[in-house]
Amino acid sequence: MPSDSALVALQQTLYTSKNPTRRWLHCTRRDWILRALEKTAAQSCKRVLEVGPGSGIYLTALAGLFEDVTAIDIEEAYLRNSRYIQDCHTNINLLIDDIKCSKLTTGSFDLILCTEVLEHIADSPAALAEMHRLLKPGGTLIISTPQCFSTLEMTAKIALLPGIIQLVRLIYQEPVIETGHINLLTEKQVRHQLELAGFHISENFKSGMYIPVLAELGGATGQRLEAWMEDYIRGSIIDWMLWTQYYIAKAL
Question: Is 115 helix (H, G, I), strand (E, B) or coil?
Fold first, then answer.
C-alpha cells in the first residue's frame, strides 16, 4: 500500500492535473458535491461531519456554509495535512475516529459528507449504520463512491499492475499509485446498504466517462468526446460504465 504522504500528494495533484480527462473527472465530482452542500446548507443545517476529509478539498467550503464542522479520519496524516485549514477557520474540529465504531455522540449532526471513502472500508454496511446513528432524525447524508464495473476501475486493474504502472507514470508525468480500493460497489449494492442502514434516497447521479488511450493521448478533444458520451449514456442501461455514483439520502 502507498504511504499516507503519497496519498495526500496524489489527491492534491488530481484537481490540477495536466491531463484534461484526469482533471475533468475529479473536478466534476468536486463541483457536484459542492452544489449538493450549498443546497443542503440552505435548509438551515448547522452541524456537519465529514468522514475521511482526505486532502481537505471540501473543508473550506464546509466552514463557510455551516456553523460547526467536524472532520474525522483514522489516518493522522490526512488530518495533519488539513491543520492549516483549521488554523484559518475556528469552526473546524479535526479528530482521529473510526466511522465503523465512532466515539461521537448519537444524533449530533444535521449533515454527513462521505465522498470517496466507502471503497476503502471493507465493512461499508457498518460504516453506513454508524453514519445513520450520528445523524439527527431527518438528517442528510451526501455520499459518493466509484462504480464497481466502470471503465476506469476495470482499466485500473491492469494499469496499476507492476511493470505497467511505470509506463502509466511516464505518460501522465504525475503521481500514479495504487488506489487502495478494497470495496467497490455496484449501484444495487449501494442502494441496498443505504436502505438497510435506515436511509431514504432522495437524489442520485452518475458521472465520469473514461475511455482508455483516448483519455491519455486525446488531450482536450478526447475529454470533450468523453463528456459527450457521458451525457449520452447517463440514465441508460449502460451507465454502469460511468466512474462515480452519488447519493443524497435522508435518515429515517
Answer: strand
Domains of the chain plus CATH, in order, are 4-251 (3.40.50.150)
pTM over 0.85: yes
A 10 A CB-CB count for 233 gives 16
- For residue 132, the number of C-alpha atoms closer than 13 Å in the C-beta half-sphere is 19
Across 40-44, 146-150, 171-175, the highest mean pLDDT is recorded for: 146-150
Pair 26, 15: CB distance under 8 Å:
yes
Orientation angle between helical segments 164-172 and 151-159, nearest 10 degrees? 120
Please state, as a whole number, how many other Cβ atoms lie within 10 Å of the Cβ of residue 169.
13
Give the position of cell 482499466.
155
Query: Are the beta carbons of 82 and 71 closer than 8 angstroms?
Result: yes
Distances (CA, A) of 148 to 29, 145, 153: 17, 9, 7
Quote the CA–CA distance of 82 and 62 in Å, as a whole number: 13
Beta bridge partners of 114: 143
For residue 249, give the H/E element and its range: strand 244-251
Local structure of 206: helix, strand or coil: strand
Sequence-ordered list of residues with C-beta below 8 angstroms from that of 168, at least 6 positions apart, any chain: 159, 160, 176
State the Cα–Cα distance between residues 49 and 248, nearest whole angstrom.
Answer: 15
